[in-house]
Design brief:
Elements: H1 20-34, E1 41-45, E2 60-63, H2 69-79, E3 84-90, H3 91-97, H4 99-108, E4 113-118, H5 153-159, E5 164-169, H6 173-185, E6 190-195, H7 207-210, H8 215-218, E7 219-222, E8 229-230, E9 236-242, E10 249-255, H9 272-278, E11 288-295, H10 301-315, H11 321-332
Parallel strand pairs: 1-2, 1-3, 3-4, 4-6, 5-6, 7-11
Antiparallel strand pairs: 5-11, 8-9, 9-10
């Protein structure tokens, strides 16, 4: 299927240069690559710049209210498990007013594909700090710098017992498409954190890895079953080191030919290493991990609910509402 099949006839109203344009295009490419017909796909969103996405995709769509995209998406998937359901959200919509729904759709492992576009700012409401804005960030709602510590989305996902977490960058189209395809192929709640730029209110927020000249040294693309190598010449690798006395594991950079270089296993059940990888960044002088970081199997909520309904229905004397009312009428007589 061509990507054009998934483009709607609506004018795309993201600001020129906004990273959301790239995610929209990547999603259209990913949907085409997956090959599921447009009438079998539903895109649900809340409120925010990223939540405009249902308008630009030629699928079923629902632009809901602020923070409630996860609740609606859960209902859609549970009532229509045959549909492929995508949830489009931003760091404000998903982690502030929608934070409760976010952690519980992960905990329940609803078979949804959640794209959280993280520009670390409220863009649609004109530049207030968000739950992922760094401490000290100056904005319209924090003119002297926010005193709050930010959420790290990966920590929330893993803390809620997430089965799939990936991270991608708006200027890296191939990795973004790969992550979105992998999210759809995963059976369970797939979270893809899309690092995007807001040219109007938070320009350059991901410059540490978005800059083309620095990206190879400041980021690493993790691929299941492959060595964790990075650098312009793939001359660096990642290894585990245990701190003496405390026995705390940490990630360290070693030469690419070091025998300790790790091989990425996204499917290991224990999330310890996945968490260490997801928390890498300039704060600990390590490259930011991109790609699929975690991808494990577990029972899905929608499958469990529908199995329970079938089991109870099979045991019931009345198999339908008509049979139930007929039984009641007979009892009344």
């Amino acid at each position: 299927m061509p990507a054009s099949d998934f483009k709607s006839d609506q004018y795309v109203r993201f600001c020129p240069g906004c990273g959301d344009h790239a995610i929209c295009m990547a999603l259209q490419k990913a949907m085409a690559q997956i090959g599921i017909p447009t009438h079998q796909v539903a895109v649900i969103s809340g409120i925010g710049c990223s939540s405009r996405m249902p308008h630009y995709l030629n699928t079923y769509g629902f632009n809901t209210i602020h923070g409630r995209g996860g609740a609606i998406a859960t209902g859609v998937k549970t009532s229509h498990p045959e549909l492929t359901v995508w949830q489009m959200s931003g760091d404000g919509d998903c982690l502030a007013i929608g934070g409760n729904h976010f952690i519980h759709e992960i905990r329940r492992n609803v078979d949804l594909n959640v794209c959280m576009l993280n520009n670390r700012i409220y863009g649609l409401t004109k530049g207030q700090y968000s739950p992922t804005s760094p401490k000290g960030f100056v904005s319209k709602s924090s003119p002297f710098g926010t005193v709050e510590r930010p959420f790290i989305p990966a920590e929330l996902v893993l803390g809620a017992r997430g089965t799939f977490f990936a991270r991608t960058l708006d200027v890296d189209m191939p990795t973004t498409v790969d992550c979105l395809v992998a999210a759809q192929q995963h059976k369970g709640c797939s979270i893809v954190e899309c690092l995007v730029n807001c040219v109007i209110f938070n320009n350059g927020t991901h410059a540490w890895i978005a800059d083309r000249e620095q990206r190879a040294e400041h980021s690493i693309i993790l691929r299941h079953g492959e060595k964790m190598l990075f650098g312009k010449d793939n001359d660096k690798g990642l290894a585990i080191e245990i701190a003496p006395q405390t026995f705390v594991p940490k990630i360290v950079v070693v030469p690419a030919d070091d025998s300790r270089v790790l091989i990425h296993d996204a499917t290991q059940t224990d999330p310890t290493l996945h968490r260490l990888l997801a928390l890498m960044g300039p704060e600990n002088e390590l490259p930011v991990a991109l790609g699929v970081i975690r991808n494990v199997e577990a029972e899905t909520y929608d499958e469990a609910v529908n199995n329970q309904i079938r089991e109870i229905r099979d045991k019931a004397k009345a198999k339908s509402f008509d049979e139930l009312t007929a039984t009641l009428e007979s009892f009344e007589r």
